[in-house]
Amino acid sequence: MFEPEIGLNRRGFVLGAAGALLAGPAAATAAAPSGGWTRQAYMEAMAKSGRPVDLTEAQFQAIQARKPAAMKRIESYLKERLGSADPAVMAAFQAVPREYFHYMYDGHYATPGNAYEAEPKPWALGFGSALSDYLGQAYMTQIAHPKDTDVTLEIGTGSGFQSSLLSRIVQKSYSIEIIEPLGHAVGKIFAPLGYDNVHTRVGDGYYGWPEVEGGFDIIIVTCAAQYAPPELFKQMKPGGRMIIPIGQPFKKGQILYVYTKDEAGKIHSKRDVGVYFIPMTGAMMKTPAPREAPGG
User: Which of 3, 90, 216, 248 could in theory staple to 274 by disulfide, Cβ–Cβ 3.0 to 4.6 A?
Assistant: First the structure.
C-alpha cells in the first residue's frame, strides 16, 4: 500500500487521508454512444460488449446521483496531494461512466451498484484482477501528465477503466493484459462507448508493445516489478514518462517510481511514494535483473 496513507494492489488502490470540458482528440466523443448517458445507453452498450445486465431506471439514477460527490472527492484529493486537480483529468473522470466497468468476468454478472462508493476501494473483476480505487487512478493519471498529443501504454488492462480514462485525454491509448480470458473479454467493451482510440491485446507486458511505431509518451505499470523492464525504457519516447511500482513480491517496501527520458535518451528516476502491489507475472518472474537496471 501507499505508506502510510495509500494502499495499492494490481489495478486497485486503497487510499486514505493524507467538471471541465473534455480535452484531447476524443473531446467530441461523449461518454455514451449517442444521446447522452442514459439507462438505455448503458443497457445497449453492455449488451453490445457481451455483458447483458438487468438494471431498473431507479437503480440507474441512484448510481448517477452518487457521481457528483465522487467527483468532489477526486478534486479534493488531487488538490491535497498534488496542489491542484488537472482539468483534463477531471474532465476524463466526468466523461467515463464508471458503472460500465464494474463487472465480474469469471462469474459473468454486472455490479454497477458499486460505482462511486463513498469509501474508495478496489472491486473484484474475477481472475484475480480488480477495478482500481478511483482516487488512486486519478493520482497516477495526474502524475503522468497526459496531453492530447500523447500515445500511452498501460501494463495490466484490468477493467479497462484506466485505458478509457487516458483515451479521453490522449491521442492513442494502448493496453496489455496477461490474463487471457480477462483480456479477451475486456477488449470488447470499448467500441460500444465509441472509444476508438483504445487498443488492447493479450500478452506479457514485460516486453511492452514494440510494434507501435515511435514508442510511447507515457507508460503506466499497475503491478509490482522487481526492476523496471529494459524493453519499456526502449519504448519510451524522448521526453517520455513511466510510472511503475518496484519492489519484492508480496513484501512491504515497494516504491512507486517516476522515470523520465530526456532528449538525449538518458533515463532519470524519482521515488514518489510507498506502495503495495501484487507482482508482475510472466517474464518478470524468471528473468534476472540487468546489471544496471534503474531503480532495481
Answer: 3
